[in-house]
Amino acid sequence: MVSVQPVTGKRKILLIEDDPNIVLGLHDALTFEGFEVVAADTAKKGLALAKQTRPNAIILDLMLPDGNGYNVCEELRKIDRIVPIVMLTARSSEADKIRGLDAGADDFLTKPFSVGELVARMRAIFRRVERSSDRPESFVLGSVQIHLGAHTVTRGKETEPLGFYEVGLLRALYERAGEPVSRDELLQRIWGLEASTTNRTVDNFIVKLRRKIERTPDKPEHILTVYGYGYKLAP
């Protein structure tokens, strides 16, 4: 296991991965970019480090020697409901990604992946944190109250948490309410990714958001699809 001691002022990333080659490569790349990295090679150690170190972001492998990443992700969400979690997986099916989103993951990289792409996603995460840290907006969509600063959605007496990227999507759509926002722009702004015809990241998160916000998710009233382009928010 690779680990470095806390350094004041640096963004801390917890890496939960049992492949020593991946750990070493990511540790070196992320450290070079100025991040602090703490790492664990089992689910048990990873959960302990999450409690002890309170990381600013987590990179989580789906397959660990003592547990699967879905269950670990659910446990991590009990520790911190809003920390960004990027899951590393050899599974590329939409069903697996949806299952990961439901478990609390915010993003996915399918193995084998580009270290440069992962580093770019980490940079995008922290740029968004810095931009949004002083903007605790809230707004209403129909019968739902959205609290971006608190990362929650409230309907009546029930409150449900919003994930890191869910807040990013809602903020981006809210700032342009009534106007279409392209998938390309959302991918670049929120994930720091270039668009591709096979990238379903935005669509997967929209599905998850609709389940939390819309009265009838398959007949949305507020998060609307602009076919062939992107999405728009209808207050």
Euclidean distance between termini CA atoms: 49 Å
Q: How big is the Rg?
A: 18 Å
| CATH level 1 class label of the largest domain | Alpha Beta
Helix-strand makeup class:
alpha/beta
Helix content: 40-55%
Overall 3D form: globular
CATH topology descriptor of the largest domain: Rossmann fold
Query: What's the mean pLDDT score?
Result: 85
The tally of strands reads 14
**H-E string:** EHEHEEEHEHEHEEEEHEHHEE
Main β-sheet, spatial strand arrangement: 2-1-3-6-7
- Strand-residue fraction? 15-25%
CATH architecture of the largest domain: 3-Layer(aba) Sandwich
Number of spatially distinct domains = 2
> Low-confidence stretches at least 5 residues in length (pLDDT < 50)?
1-8
Major β-sheet annotation = 5 strands, parallel
CATH superfamily of the largest domain: Response regulator
Number of helices: 8
Features:
235 residues, Rossmann fold, Arc Repressor Mutant, subunit A, four-stranded antiparallel sheet, 8 helices, 41% helix, 23% strand, globular
Written description of the protein model:
With 235 residues, the protein is of the alpha/beta class. The protein has 2 domains: 12-131, Response regulator (Rossmann fold), CATH 3.40.50.2300; 135-233, Winged helix-like DNA-binding domain superfamily/Winged helix DNA-binding domain (Arc Repressor Mutant, subunit A, Orthogonal Bundle), CATH 1.10.10. Helix content is 41%, strand content 23%. The protein is built from 8 helices and 14 strands. It has helices at residues 20-32, 43-53, 69-79, 94-103, 115-132, 164-175, 183-191, 201-213, and strands at 12-16, 36-40, 57-61, 63-64, 67-68, 85-89, 107-110, 138-141, 144-147, 152-155, 158-161, 181-182, 223-226, 230-233. It has a 5-stranded parallel sheet, with helices on both faces. Strand 13 (223-226) and strand 14 form a beta hairpin. It is globular. The model is unreliable at 1-8 (pLDDT under 50).
